[in-house]
Design a protein that fits this description.
This protein is mostly beta strands. The protein has four helices and 26 strands. The chain folds into two domains: about 1-180, Jelly Rolls, CATH 2.60.120; about 185-350, Sandwich (Jelly Rolls). The protein starts with a strand and ends with a helix. The structure holds copper (II) ion.
Length: about 350
């Protein structure tokens, strides 16, 4: 069911996210999700969830908004008392992709690129995204946004309690912008596990020598979230992990789908408890671009923290290079657990019409 979003308040200065982009008036959109009673174990991806429509800025004429930062926190029914983020599964902000793609379509002839509907994802241990100064994700104010939030609990809950999630989105109105902002777009890359009877290379007919090491390991899916690649082979982004240490790799060149050479400026990650590290590697140069260390909370067995990458200067990435993502899990729980590993990569969008406009 879709609820119309309840707008709690607009604050023009001051919020719990770190300050950024001080040179323009920042707006903060705050929102509390509907109340849910938590009273049992909820495995990852199976907790109570709510989906809302979200209007960041109500204006008669559609205008460009630059999203700069997003954060979430589990709170009590009043919204005042902060609760443990062990009950956070994830929150996603999605945009209506057809309209979004049409408005911000590529300025380069014969170089289409397709935006994912996802603009932000936060999850346990990764509860805020703050893009580097001078960068933002542009949206148009009239294009629908949806906000999905889900709870989880790895442990039984002895005393049921009420919980909500409190979100903040920081943005700048383009009309109030005093300096140039550079557009970023998000691509989600995911470790995949092969559901075939052998390790296989995602989206490639043959491994070849150089890519052979990046084949997806075999595994068992932990949910209905499986899909096929261009070769018709089955994979899952959500799999069972037996006790012990294991590494999973995936060729993610096609998931990144770079239309041109560019730079990346922010990487966030989603993993589950007992992950040790998550890595993005340029296979063509052999260089590790990002290695995010993960800390597990031994009490609730969820994620305590995940390192992120954030840089104004950015890292160069090339449309003709091959990229590999990997995750290491060290399952010391003594039982079978569920694994996932996703990277949320924000690339500079040189093909955005807002860039061309600046050059005029
Ligand atoms: Cu997950």
């Amino acid at each position: 069911m879709n609820y119309k979003l309840i707008l709690l308040s607009f604050l023009f200065v001051g919020c719990s996210l770190p300050p950024s982009q001080q040179y323009a008036k920042r707006h903060t959109f705050e929102y509390l999700s509907p109340t849910r009673t938590l009273d049992q174990v909820y495995p990852s991806m199976n907790g109570p969830e709510d989906i809302q429509e979200m209007t960041l800025w109500d204006s008669e004429e559609p205008e460009v908004l630059w999203l700069l930062a997003h954060s979430t926190q589990v709170v009590d029914d009043t919204g005042q008392q902060t609760l443990s983020n062990e009950y956070l599964c994830h929150t996603n902000i999605d945009v209506e992709a057809n309209q979004h793609n049409h408005i911000f379509q590529s300025t380069a002839p014969n170089t289409p690129r397709w935006f994912h509907p996802r603009l932000f994802t936060l999850s346990q241990g990764a509860t805020s995204v703050v893009l580097p100064d001078g960068y933002g994700v542009p949206v148009r104010s009239d294009v629908p946004l949806t906000l999905l939030n889900m709870f989880l609990s790895h442990k039984p809950i002895e005393a049921p309690f009420q919980a909500r999630q409190r979100f903040e989105v920081q943005f700048i109105r383009d009309a109030e912008r005093t300096q140039t902002l550079k557009p970023l777009y998000l691509k989600v890359a995911s470790v995949l596990v092969s559901l075939e009877d052998q390790p296989v290379l995602f989206n490639r007919e043959k491994s070849g020598e150089t890519l052979h090491d990046s084949s997806c390991s075999m595994g068992v899916t932990a949910s209905e979230l499986w899909h096929r690649d261009s070769q018709g082979r089955k994979y899952t982004p959500h799999w069972y992990i037996e006790p012990g240490r294991s590494e999973y790799k995936t060729l993610v060149t096609d998931q990144m789908a770079l239309p041109v050479d560019t730079t990346l400026h922010y990487i966030g990650a989603h993993v589950h408890g007992y992950a040790e590290s998550i890595v993005l590697k340029d296979l063509t140069t052999g260089k590790v671009l990002f290695r995010g260390k993960v800390t597990t909370n031994q009490e609730h067995e969820g994620v305590e923290s995940v390192e992120v990458f954030s840089s104004k200067k950015g890292l160069r990435v090339y449309k003709d290079h091959e990229y590999e993502m990997s995750v290491v899990y060290n399952n010391t729980s003594g039982k079978t657990i569920e694994g996932m590993a996703m990277l949320y990569i924000y690339f500079y969008d040189a093909l955005n019409p807002l860039v061309q406009r600046r050059a005029d």
